Amino acid sequence: MKHFITTADFDQQTLQQMLDLANQFKQGKSSDILKNKSVALLFFNPSLRTRTTFEIGTWQLGGHAIVLEPGKSAWPLEFELGNKMDATAEEHVIEAAKVLSRFCDLICIRAFPKFENWEYDRQDKIIQSFAQYATVPVINMETITHPCQELAHMQMIQEKLGTPKKKKYLLTWTYHPKPLNTAVANSSLLISTKFGMDVTLLCPTEEYLLDERYLNIAKENVAQYGGSFQVTHDIKQAYQDADVVYAKSWGALPYFGHWEPEKQIRDRYQHFIVDEEKMGLTNNAIFSHCLPLRRNIKATDGVMDADYCAAIDEAENRLHAQKGMMQYLLENQ
Amino acid sequence: MKHFITTADFDQQTLQQMLDLANQFKQGKSSDILKNKSVALLFFNPSLRTRTTFEIGTWQLGGHAIVLEPGKSAWPLEFELGNKMDATAEEHVIEAAKVLSRFCDLICIRAFPKFENWEYDRQDKIIQSFAQYATVPVINMETITHPCQELAHMQMIQEKLGTPKKKKYLLTWTYHPKPLNTAVANSSLLISTKFGMDVTLLCPTEEYLLDERYLNIAKENVAQYGGSFQVTHDIKQAYQDADVVYAKSWGALPYFGHWEPEKQIRDRYQHFIVDEEKMGLTNNAIFSHCLPLRRNIKATDGVMDADYCAAIDEAENRLHAQKGMMQYLLENQ
Amino acid sequence: MKHFITTADFDQQTLQQMLDLANQFKQGKSSDILKNKSVALLFFNPSLRTRTTFEIGTWQLGGHAIVLEPGKSAWPLEFELGNKMDATAEEHVIEAAKVLSRFCDLICIRAFPKFENWEYDRQDKIIQSFAQYATVPVINMETITHPCQELAHMQMIQEKLGTPKKKKYLLTWTYHPKPLNTAVANSSLLISTKFGMDVTLLCPTEEYLLDERYLNIAKENVAQYGGSFQVTHDIKQAYQDADVVYAKSWGALPYFGHWEPEKQIRDRYQHFIVDEEKMGLTNNAIFSHCLPLRRNIKATDGVMDADYCAAIDEAENRLHAQKGMMQYLLENQ
């Protein structure tokens, strides 16, 4: 069974095939690959773009999407093996995954970390469990990475810059009042290095480095696909000559679950906001963000409203990129 | 961009075109004007009729509706310009409106007042912001007016009474344990005066008058379309010879946000309930209400179960009227 | 108007017609009996299988399903007649049922007991009210019985065992930390006796007997369709030579609404769990459960993961059986 859980499972060429399909869909290509098929969309967390694009994308491909919210409209689920289910979960993922596989042809999961214990959250247990027990392909709608966002992001970069290879790509940490998921930041490194870009990760301190798993994949991608990867805490150096600036906030992993002391550190770095002055240091870079974005916290109104802001274009690509990915996945099982 | 935010933006003839289409749909007309199109339904408040009719109406016109609940299944939104988004909102309406416009061909909004400050709520900021930033038509599913209800209401009146011009129309305030939205009351005045009816607004005291904006539009409609408009606090005079009785409860605007003292006043007027005795004063009037309605609070069981109660017929027309309105809107951009 | 509220309203032959249609759908039969029709799904309680299968089943039959959650996304409803609606309900079932009948061609209801007063809950007032005021067929998605589960269960039994007549059928009570609904247990007795099986109800004490209404129907079914029905509290005797073991937990009716003392009794019977040792006493029985199921509380991992566990097959049949039932219902009004 071929799932779409992380882009690390696919080489550049295969991802490019999905992107080529995405571009064809954007140009008006029609497909009924989901005719008579249905798609389960399981949301453990809120969503605007993801829900809208998966529902519409499924419908445009001829299928029908079902939205389920475990713990709200649907039963709370258990993910541990072998324990006595005497707490709040009414159903085990083994049954949920097997049953949904009887009704649906794809199972899509959004499950953010619980933000208590990174050693636990980094196992990505919810989607991994569904992938283990489902008998249909499982798709990641954001867990500890966000591969659908990666495709939409790379489609946008190729639209704006042509070939991404050796272009200067900056992923900058930004402030946010709450400690957020590292998923999109991890994904940013995965996809930019996979396409041979010269990648800089800008974060306030060593404490804001991403999980070593993703840093290592980034280094492996550099070895395989060219490009480069560096980490810096120097804002000016980071923005200098950048072609792409991608922003994301996240909580520091060493303080995971101990967010009080982390907040004291985080609060010192509100100046990491993306503003017009910083953008002025770049090589007329495009700016983007996965959205939702808090204005004047992560980026200023001036940046968000500038012509170089590509966040809306990237968001639109979610629809096309996910259709391309589903088309590929169903044609290549 | 032509939106459908208030019927005040359309003349009688144009609204009649929508109603004619509504009647054709009720008679079995089919249309695929929404083929390959999708419609975003944003609910900031609960709904039964609105959600059901927009979902089914969209589907009957060949399209696909997406239901989004900001603050619940979707991200909480910010509507102020230029501020630092450090509170609870994760996304600005600028991005939400622009992004949804990339995915959907119509954006429909239900956003009731917050009931704290009428000077704020009367700006109707949520739907006005969506209309400002969206690049597709925006439709009002009830904010501070309820124009879809107006169409369904007028379609019902024309079905029951023929030409509405110079028919006697009573909008009566009724009691309700909670201070409710003035939207349907405002809409009642807008649509009845727009079609040249002789309109009476019955409310307990001057404090229960509606916002002057809508009183003024009612007077302008009288000047343009004939008919008349009067306010009274005299129940018997109001019901005398009425052809249509429409009921609605609302909170007194001068006490907006100070609902404790308002409730003490409101509680004195529970006898404004629509009952069979009052209906006996009319010219065999039809009775209607937008629903939901608390029985034996706003109207008695006897009135609700009478043959002259047209509330269910009016509710049915929501489906047809909204299809007529969407058909008109998409054909006339 | 022919509703589908309880299988007690249908004889064995009619239910078999629905099952035959279900089998045809499972074999690939297509139907557009719901073309241009819509189906209201009202959920007063959570759901995974029911929601998914009714949404997909409706779509596969050419129709469109609307999901409504009264008290959450839709208005809270009142079910008593004649009272002054001054509490929390904003709308009466009379209007809700009549209005939905104008928009939809079927109304499906999930409404569990309130667990406070069995004399009240056993009236099944929510679905009975909808059936009284709706002008379209009403379908039970689980209230105090679960007839859709019955069809899926019997379809599975016929698939695994052939003719069910005179096969030994065990319904065993199991432990659960919370007092659960008797609906599926009631349904288990209704359907197994309706098809002439030799039925044993195993429960810890007389206090865990089901409502006499369903015990009486079981006895009437025995008289009409052959088979037999006995109650026992002896685990070994109950499992001996069984062909089917069906498990369900429920709260003791004599303690309904007084769940503290009931829990003290219930906690003594955790050994009613279905395990491999008990299954070893049977005639190579199949095991099933309606799901959701708490593993290692109601049944062990060993039982759930065994080849003889048919719970997933039964769940799959929900889709086919409900399509068969809707096809029958719409063809036979």
Tally of DSSP β-strands of chain A: 11
Q: Largest interface by residue count?
A: A-B, 30 and 31 residues
CATH class bucket of the largest domain in chain A: Alpha Beta
Mean pLDDT of chain A: 97
Q: What CATH architecture of the largest domain in chain A would you give?
A: 3-Layer(aba) Sandwich
Overall structural class of chain A, as computed from helix and strand content, comes to alpha/beta
Q: Would you mind describing this structure in some detail?
A:
Chains A, B, C: Carbamoyl phosphate binds at residues 47-50, 75, 110, 146-149, 290-291, 318. Chains A, B, C: Residues 2-159 form the Aspartate/ornithine carbamoyltransferase carbamoyl-P binding domain. Chains A, B, C: The record marks 90 as: Key residue in conferring substrate specificity for N-acetyl-L-ornithine versus N-succinyl-L-ornithine. Chains A, B, C: Catalyzes the transfer of the carbamoyl group from carbamoyl phosphate to the delta-amino group of N(2)-acetyl-L-ornithine to produce N(2)-acetyl-L-citrulline. This is a step in an alternative arginine biosynthesis pathway. The structure is a homotrimer of 333-residue chains. Chain A is of the alpha/beta class and 333 residues long. The first copy, chain A, has helices at residues 12-26, 49-60, 93-103, 118-121, 125-133, 147-161, 183-194, 212-225, 235-239, 259-266, 276-279, 301-304, 311-331, and strands at residues 38-43, 64-68, 77-78, 91-92, 106-110, 138-140, 168-173, 198-202, 228-232, 244-248, 286-288. In chain A, the strands form three sheets. In chain A, strands 9-8-7-10-11 form a five-stranded parallel β-sheet. In chain A, helix 6 (147-161) crosses helix 7 (183-194) and helix 6 (147-161) packs across helix 13. Chains in contact: A-B, A-C, B-C. Chains A and B meet through helix 2 and helix 13 of A and strand 2, strand 4 and helix 3 of B.
